[in-house]
């Protein structure tokens, strides 16, 4: 039997127009950015001038004045002019006839922005490189409460700057936390990671979780076998732990018990029908409850209805005063709870110690006597046993 000829493989509809590219080999780096040289600008000089300006805070004025000559030198290489306006407190950059790179003006704009946000010139100059980008993250509008904002901002830095250092090492970025912004410099991919860490920290997610994830990713990237696999099974899944209803009630009951103990220690009576005691279930009846007396009926019973308005007002004032006094006493007792000294065992005095020693000595003597008496009895028993054995053997 002759074998049936193999049917030709069907081409995927999405790939039917694709052709082989012999020039596109694996050794070519697709992400490499080649430097832009004057020869690459075939259009010549720009037809219009482009300029950007940014304001800077008052405390940066002294530093900028000292460094401005170095700034002009750094930008002059790329054919960009810059001016420092101390009257209006602004810095500006603009293109000149010598500028050949159309994108360098945006890089110069980023440089003056970073310097305004507190970045040193030696670091800010690196932004003019093609492989480095920057991101200024605004964090002031994430948290409204000032104390909470300061705490969370400090959490980004960490103790002695340890958290910030860890972020810098894992992402290969420069990070500066200044006022209401976080300035970041580094490769594009890393900027995304740092932005995520910073914003999550301001939303009360600790940076350590993201740092752990980055450390695991770094180790996984070293293994070439895992290049085509999903890393989800290796990455930690952090979830908020929600308490069960039983755990919540247990916590609540513990707090109530502690309060009651503190009240007893002060000498206050524990309120009847407290929430710690379980409520009794009401027995179901098909009949409606008895009708409650009206306010007027109660006043008629007590005789309050026939009182004058002035007498009524006096009575109400007395009631109010009585209530206030009760509340005051209650608050005083609650404050006194904090000052209740814990029960302490007093150290024994010299006389008590002597008495203890005497008792111990007397007890020891009694034990010794009992042992001696017991020893004599055992000796007598042994003698009797020996005497009994002798006639039997004879």
UniProtKB/TrEMBL annotation:
Residues 1-45, 242-295, 338-394 are annotated as: Disordered. One of its GO terms (cellular component) is small-subunit processome. It holds the Pfam family KH_KRR1_1st. InterPro entries: KH_dom (IPR004087), KH_dom_type_1_sf (IPR036612), KRR1-like_KH1 (IPR041174), KRR1-like_KH1_euk (IPR048550), KRR1-like_KH2 (IPR048548), KRR1-like_KH2_euk (IPR048549), rRNA_assembly_KRR1 (IPR024166). Residues 131-203 form the K Homology domain. The keyword Ribonucleoprotein applies. It comes from the Eukaryota. One of its GO terms (biological process) is rRNA processing. Its main location: nucleus. It is found in: Nucleus, Nucleolus. Residues 338-349 have a biased composition (Low complexity). Keywords: Nucleus, Ribonucleoprotein, Ribosome biogenesis, RNA-binding, rRNA processing. Transmembrane segments: none annotated. One of its GO terms (molecular function) is RNA binding. Residues 1-13, 21-42, 244-264 have a biased composition (Basic and acidic residues). Required for 40S ribosome biogenesis. Involved in nucleolar processing of pre-18S ribosomal RNA and ribosome assembly. Essential for vegetative growth. Component of the ribosomal small subunit (SSU) processome composed of at least 40 protein subunits and snoRNA U3. Interacts with snoRNA U3. Interacts with MPP10, KRI1 and with ribosomal proteins RPS1A, RPS4A, RPS4B, RPS8A, RPS8B, RPS11A, RPS11B, RPS13, RPS24, RPS25, RPL4A, RPL7B, RPL8, RPL23, RPL25 and RPL28. Belongs to the KRR1 family. This is KRR1 small subunit processome component. It comes from Coprinopsis marcescibilis. The lineage of its organism: Eukaryota, Fungi, Dikarya, Basidiomycota, Agaricomycotina.
